[in-house]
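Q: Structure tokens for this one, please.
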Amino acid sequence: MKTKGNRNELIDLISLSLPTFSAIFSSTLYLKKIEYKGTNSSELYNCVEETFELRKGLFQDLLNIKLGIGKWTTSELIELMEEYMTTIRSIFRNVDKM
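A: Here is the predicted structure, written as tokens:
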């Protein structure tokens, strides 16, 4: 899906991709033998950020976008999406080394 910087398409992409990556993150933590306490997405994201030494709050920002919390400019969404994709690649590289 190419968003071409379209604000609504960026929000849709974030909203649709987060549940998929949540499942991958949960499985990745299991493979690393890391147990996280909690049953909600925020706690999972906090554990992933800590485990992979990521920017604290990245996934909470993405979750907030999905939930419609806060006001995000198109440029902020583009910047966050770029960070999101870079972070996902970094996590996958880490998993490949396991």
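A few notes: The radius of gyration is 14 Å. The mean pLDDT is 88.
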